[in-house]
Amino acid sequence: MSAASVISVLDDDPYVREAINNLLRSRGYMVHTFASAEEFLSSSDSKRTSCIVADMHMPSKTGIDLLTQMRAQGSATPFILITGFPDETLHIRALEAGAICCLRKPFVPADLMKCLQWALAAADDVTE
């Protein structure tokens, strides 16, 4: 993990945002939380994030919508998508859109940390 790793957490559920925030901060990451994709996109933090952890089912713009939009704009920022509504078709769509991992809520913290390690390693490979 790079000391400069900034993780952006997007979820419309404040309890989920806080739980992920607490987990990642306890592991030494800098974390920014957002209640929506629009809030994230309008933030200056959107340009400085090392990885995005986003809910697949947010009002207005879903995590997959955000991932697709950012890829279309040339962003290679790694994505981890999470959902409380497991759907194999959606899971496949997320991976095809470029997500590193898709986790079902509630997930085991170790699974998120493993996905985050993969995501940051993939980001390091892109920048080298």
Q: Per DSSP, what share of the residues sits in E-state strands of 2 or more residues?
A: 15-25%
The total number of structural domains is 1
Helix and strand run: EHEHEHEHEH
Number of strands: 5
Tell me the name of the CATH class: Alpha Beta
Into which percent range does the helicity of residues fall? 40-55%
Written overview of the protein:
The chain is of the alpha/beta class. It starts with 5 loop residues before the first strand and ends with a helix. The mean pLDDT is 91. The radius of gyration is 13 Å and the shape is globular. The protein contains five helices and five strands, in the order βαβαβαβαβα. Strand 4, helix 4 and strand 5 form a beta-alpha-beta unit. The protein has a single domain (6-122), classed as Response regulator (Rossmann fold), CATH 3.40.50. It has a five-stranded parallel β-sheet, with helices on both faces.
